[in-house]
Amino acid sequence: MRFFSDNAAPVSDAVLAAMAAANAADAAYDGDALSCRLDDAFSDLFETRVAALWVATGTAANSLALGALCPPWRGVVCHRDAHINNDEAGAPEFFTHGAKLMPADGAGAKLMPEAIAAVIDLIADDVHRVQPAAISITNATEYGLVYTPDEVAAIGALARARGLGLHMDGARFANAVASVGCAPADVTWRAGVDVLSFGFVKNGGMSAEALVFFRPELAAEVAIRRKRAGHLLSKGRYLAAQIHALLADDLWLAHGRAANDAAARIARGAGAARLVHPVQANEIFVRLSEAEAAALRAQGFGFHDWAPGEARFVTSWNQAEGEVDALAAALAAL
Amino acid sequence: MRFFSDNAAPVSDAVLAAMAAANAADAAYDGDALSCRLDDAFSDLFETRVAALWVATGTAANSLALGALCPPWRGVVCHRDAHINNDEAGAPEFFTHGAKLMPADGAGAKLMPEAIAAVIDLIADDVHRVQPAAISITNATEYGLVYTPDEVAAIGALARARGLGLHMDGARFANAVASVGCAPADVTWRAGVDVLSFGFVKNGGMSAEALVFFRPELAAEVAIRRKRAGHLLSKGRYLAAQIHALLADDLWLAHGRAANDAAARIARGAGAARLVHPVQANEIFVRLSEAEAAALRAQGFGFHDWAPGEARFVTSWNQAEGEVDALAAALAAL
Amino acid sequence: MRFFSDNAAPVSDAVLAAMAAANAADAAYDGDALSCRLDDAFSDLFETRVAALWVATGTAANSLALGALCPPWRGVVCHRDAHINNDEAGAPEFFTHGAKLMPADGAGAKLMPEAIAAVIDLIADDVHRVQPAAISITNATEYGLVYTPDEVAAIGALARARGLGLHMDGARFANAVASVGCAPADVTWRAGVDVLSFGFVKNGGMSAEALVFFRPELAAEVAIRRKRAGHLLSKGRYLAAQIHALLADDLWLAHGRAANDAAARIARGAGAARLVHPVQANEIFVRLSEAEAAALRAQGFGFHDWAPGEARFVTSWNQAEGEVDALAAALAAL
Amino acid sequence: MRFFSDNAAPVSDAVLAAMAAANAADAAYDGDALSCRLDDAFSDLFETRVAALWVATGTAANSLALGALCPPWRGVVCHRDAHINNDEAGAPEFFTHGAKLMPADGAGAKLMPEAIAAVIDLIADDVHRVQPAAISITNATEYGLVYTPDEVAAIGALARARGLGLHMDGARFANAVASVGCAPADVTWRAGVDVLSFGFVKNGGMSAEALVFFRPELAAEVAIRRKRAGHLLSKGRYLAAQIHALLADDLWLAHGRAANDAAARIARGAGAARLVHPVQANEIFVRLSEAEAAALRAQGFGFHDWAPGEARFVTSWNQAEGEVDALAAALAAL
Predict the structure, then answer these.
(1) Backbone phi, then psi, for D74, in 5-degree steps?
(2) Are residues D274 and D197 in the same domain?
(3) Same domain, C148 and C52
(4) Are residues B207 and B267 in the same domain?
(5) C-contacting residues of D 215-274, CB under 8 Å?
(6) Is residue D2 part of a domain?
(7) Which of A256, B137, B151, C145 pairs with D235 at a CA distance of 20 to 30 A?
(8) What percent of chain B has pLDDT over 90?
(9) In terms of Cα–Cα distance, which of C130, C132, C129 is closest to C116?
(10) Would B209 be classed as within a structural domain?
(11) Closest chain C residue to the Cα of A307, Cα to Cα
(12) Closest CA to C179 of C97, C321, C278
């Protein structure tokens, strides 16, 4: 029973079918019909004109976005525990040619305007200090918290006031939107987000993430930099097909909702006292003694030892109900 | 009738089936069973112990390889018309952090030791000049020529004598090996190649190329740099599956042979006088007047206007026999 | 009365005289007689065979050193308040092509092995995390503390145990050595330092710092990278001349001692209660109310408002005795 | 008798005196009075409002200029034999983060619009090809040719028509202006030059070159990148002093004229038949057999063996008349 990572889950049948359906010769790179329809598909979803690019990984999406918002000699404010700071092997530094990540603090890996301002206010405005150029937030956060539209808007207002770009790492955007129940637009461009990394791989996709530019004029340069980074696949139609399959009939949202529901049931089983963070999306961080962790593993549950006395469980879009119930019960029984 | 590019061809059923078969949850990234078996699979094929990494594009494979062989402050000798010099948007410069490509000349985009030495010999050995660190050759070349094992070995000897690494861009390695009829080992490590970009996407794959390290100690650093470049896919098993499917029963070679045979038939149809380069793999460069090109297009043939009076036709692994015969006949009839 | 920065002080007459004496035509770049004698001069000083390179700024010295010790995809542990982290505009990231600075804590900007280990121990050993490659310490620190040979040796032992390089930013190396009273070798290579940025500009020089390699085999690559960074001056003999003038008869040490002595007198005037940090070199951090700061400025003292309620005074190699006494008295009188 | 390089010549007394006169404490970095007056001084010289920055080397000046005109993913058209392409160890690639130099041909290392257009016209406008962003010309060229204002203007017009920036490497700008006899403005901004590297080191300076921005809005970013590259000297006033000394009373121009006159006399001595290139500035390329070269060396002349059968002589701002006459006579006597 796999609660280790949503990265390890299968691909949805709809996605596989769409990929198979794309298996006729077409134009190479992103000149095919499916790729060319991405701008429209995302513009519909976000209720405004956007430009969109597919890439194969969230790391590439994030790093290309940051490269578009931050020159080599400036910095990006992000949470200390953000994926871009901790789990991408320095990809943001690589793609930006050495920009500096500027870590800020906040409970549950969630950034608030005060924490961001505290980082920026310390930076004297002279050539000796690296100046910030952008803010990056993760929604849902590394610890499964989500931002309301108002919370993002407050950060967006700060970004505008300071002349900074705003990026959202939405590796689990589906879980975040499903959790808050808002329109995708509300938590992105209406709240000041310039570029969104819209994740599909953790949510039933295979190898396609989207970069969504709410300032569409940014996309042309990123398209060049995507090629320069080796991220322009020659058979791009199979990536576009994945995205279209998940956007159709809001399948992405249904998947996100399913994973969230599973997590909520597990959280209820665990009981509030065990939870390290509120469970708002599809991650459950639980206080576990070593013996308890061993007992759960003995029952067949796979999960991540996050820190001493703390374990992470992640539910996937297709998590079997029986597994969810079993884990909830096992946690309740501890 | 598509002779525009082997990049636009479909994916083979065997590959699609292998991907579907990989659709059970497994470890993320490259910790899955299929990815872990790649070293063995390529070691068997190359009759020596190698290390292998999958990536999604040939550009990424080439650039990661060059990064492993060349520090930022040195250079890579390659043909002036090489893909790495002309068609990868500066990816080699990006991945190497600014190494210099050092173009050499040669008929049919094929490098000979004399041409390489001519470039190197001009470079004074002081700190003012960028010093070479590696040689990169393309097999089959941009113009469809192939290297014999002896030809590669001569370059390998030069590389060793000058202390340079040797990379082979094998985007069409299958066509090259099928053409020469040698063992894959003969034209690679036995001839002094350090790293091979082994292409599958043009040859029936979807989104998987392999980096094969004949000096396996190079792979660990490249694995880090692959992640740093956003090229470590979280569901890597679907890439490994593609490669295993094409390696099984030498399907890769059968595909390469099929494309080559189609090209040979078209070349015979065109007649030697029309051929700009000898046809040794799956590309046919043909002298065509504007009127002739228009006439062929009117008959439904799609191809690339390479240069004034010159067109490029590329055959794919699954090129329909009828299309091939039709093109051969049409060219003969001009 | 200038206590703002040792960067603003004049150049010593000995240095100016040596530069004038170098004003005959000689070989360009670093092929001149003075440049060629640097290795010997520093080898004598450090009682071991070293290689040395001149550069024009401490930022260049530090960044070239870090580039030699850390590849683009790894990191450098340093104090959060280190010059390389805060005051060099991202030069370390530029020269290393995007390596990550990994800030550690410690009173007075001084690193202790425990603090370094605490940073490293959090870094999981996988491709997702940037791995450390080096440690950089500053001696004297940003707040004027100095390291004893034993303290450096403890860090050196940690570095060796973890396979990390060790760099010392010695922008105020003279003040540090003068303060501790040890041999230069004791606090550098004998304690495990691999590369030293040996500062002369703050200490009576004009535009010459030295990079001293205790692993001389590192110097050849850095010589290339120095040129590539535009730091190989064509009339290098004027830089070498500065260094030789300051090394001669240990003038560098006399200068450092003079500045330290001035600082000690000012510290005594201020009284221990006012001192934010122990005064061990040539910087005095003093608690000052706004009114007190204004009063001192009204008396003609120039200094830096470091933080609310805190001011920094820096003494220079040639600080006039009268100015020192006046400041000591003024602080005592507050 | 040194005709090896103008890089090896002494520093003029006026420069040394100005440096000594700057030896009072002042603000650090470029906040001092001399540095602050540079914009005005160059604005006067160029008869328009410019922004200027000092740096210590021509390589740094060129590379910072190119970084301002060209993003990492584009390219700079320059002559194949340009200093930036051949003699700066890849510094342009370093400072631009991997932009591509795009070599064009032309007699005497001089670029003409046709040659530039020929390079650009071959570059298909798609994401696979590196697109040009700037043109860089060298005046005087590597082979001592100079551009007339009309010639630069033709390149400037091409640059504007193609949307490219235009940089002039003026390491020997003094020799070029002295040779043509135009106003400095005529051959720079009036002809479309955006940024000039204005060399002083080869012309009586010690360690100061100027970056002159005819689009002053470019300077702020370059000031940041100068610091980031370790090129902001903390005692910058000594660099500014050098520049002011050479600008005063057009000393720079007198020096350039002197070197040119010496070269002209040597060229006359050599006779037109021996000259590889017309002698328009301070370099003389002469056809010499090995025996002749040896004979000249035996007479005490130092020079550079440029290529088989070809030697380079460079005159300096202070070349002694006797040396010049001796060389002219010796060449005439061959």
Answers:
(1) -125, -165
(2) no
(3) yes
(4) no
(5) 224, 227-235, 238-239
(6) no
(7) C145
(8) 98
(9) C132
(10) yes
(11) C122
(12) C278
Task: Write out the residue range of the structural domain in which residue A273 sits.
Answer: 252-332
Q: Which residues of B touch C227 (CB under 8 A)?
A: 127-128
Tell me the residues of chain C between 179 and 218 that have a Cβ less than 8 Å away from chain D.
201-202, 206-207
> SS3 of A317, please?
coil
Mutate to test the interface with A, among D228, D232, D233 (most CBs of A within 10 A): D228
* Domain stop point among D223, D251, D279: D251
Q: Say which DSSP state B50 is in.
A: -
In a shared domain, residues C241 and C275: no
* Cβ pair B90:D100 closer than 8 A: yes
Are residues B236 and B298 both part of a single domain?
Answer: no
The verdict on a CB contact (< 8 Å) between D63 and C230 is yes
Report the gap between the CA of C121 and the closest CA in chain D (Å): 30
Q: Between β-strands D283-287 and D304-307, what pairing exists: parallel, antiparallel or unpaired?
A: unpaired
- How many independent structural domains does chain D possess? 2
Judge whether D4 lies within some domain.
no
Residue that finishes a domain, picked among A249, A276, A296: A249
What is the C-alpha separation between C143 and C281, in angstroms, rounded?
9
Percent helix / strand / coil, chain B, rounded to 5? 45, 15, 35
C35-43, Cβ contacts within 8 angstroms, sequence gap of 24 or more = C35/C236, C35/C237, C35/C239, C35/C240, C37/C240, C37/C244, C38/C210, C38/C240, C38/C243, C38/C244, C39/C216, C41/C243, C41/C244, C41/C247, C42/C198, C42/C210, C42/C212, C42/C247
Query: Looking at beta carbons, which residues of chain D come within 8 Å of A97?
Result: 72, 97
B73 contact residues in D (CB cutoff 8 A): 89-90, 94
Nearest-CB residue to C227 (from B72, B128, B228): B128
ipTM score assigned to the predicted complex: 0.97
Instruction: Render pLDDT for C194-216 as a digit per residue (tens, 0 to 9).
Output: 999 999 999 999 999 999 999 99
Measured in whole angstroms, the distance separating CA A329 from the mean position of its chain's CA atoms is 29
Q: Is residue B5 part of a domain?
A: no
pLDDT tens digits, residue range B48-62?
A: 999 999 999 999 999
At which residue do the structure tokens 């990148």 appear?
D225
Do C160 and C50 fall into the same domain?
Answer: yes
Which residue, among C151, C176, C183, has the nearest Cα to C281 in the 3D structure? C176
Q: Which two tokens stand for residue A315?
A: 């539910």
